[in-house]
């Protein structure tokens, strides 16, 4: 699959003056609930009304969605409000029902994207549809698996595609429900700049208080849209209560978000930008040359260790370096998270160098 300008045609055709917004409850619970939320979203920036009707839940016994019955409610949303409707599909039967009921956009969840068999089944069922299909990232941070899933759908003739970034699970406890791993989404954009990329801040944060900030980061990174779970009574939602916002909160979020443009032609801005970029180029060059010097020293240590038959990994020394660098980093306004990531990568490279020498 290659990047093609036409991949974003369906989004461009909407001619929006704001990011695409997909809003609605995590789950369709009752007909009244669905219609109430839809009416409250009708005159907002929301372009598509979302509601999950088949819910993949972590444990059996949790609310697993109302099933096909919910499609009737979604159809009513379209009739009564004129909003386009969308839902998640997780197998061929779901796709068939969604298409028969004229759902306007379908998305595939993170727990489906992980499985090439399920993705192929869904792709076959979608064959030839002109409805947009959005593919969420797989639960694990694996860009190839995400792209592979998209490719399966694209190859089955679905030309209106998009990606949803919903973050990645981790054993680590963090402030996020699913860690964003922005770097992976940036890589995605580099490879496929024309596949519309939509952020799902609800699943990334798991917490409505953090939705605004994460959404702003996405807009700062050129995302095309947001999928935000919205419920008239979030506290009492049947699923994911902590991460849903009210329709009025959604309106406020959309008002407060700053929409960035890709560039600006003004000369003064461009001069200042070029100047700072030239400074960055020099610093980057210095960083590489310093890292090269560091590795030469590491190679020397490797040779010494080889002579004396000493192990490459020296945990005590390594921990001392990490501790010192975190403190120094702080003095220079560098976050602990960044210092740890960077030095772990440097340490690994140093180990790789020494391994070559010691075993060479
Ligand atoms: O100090 C050492 O013994 C090294 O090999 C250098 C180094 C490093 O790159 O800083 C690499 C591996 C060890 O685990 C500790 C530190």
From TrEMBL:
GO MF entries: chorismate mutase activity; transferase activity
Task: State the EC number(s).
Answer: 5.4.99.5
GO annotation, biological process: chorismate metabolic process
Q: Which domain of life is it from?
A: Bacteria
Stretches assigned to the Chorismate mutase domain: 267-358
| Keywords, sorted A to Z | Transferase
Q: Where is the signal peptide?
A: none
Name it: chorismate mutase
Species name for this entry? Flavivirga eckloniae
Highest classification ranks of the organism: Bacteria, Pseudomonadati, Bacteroidota, Flavobacteriia, Flavobacteriales
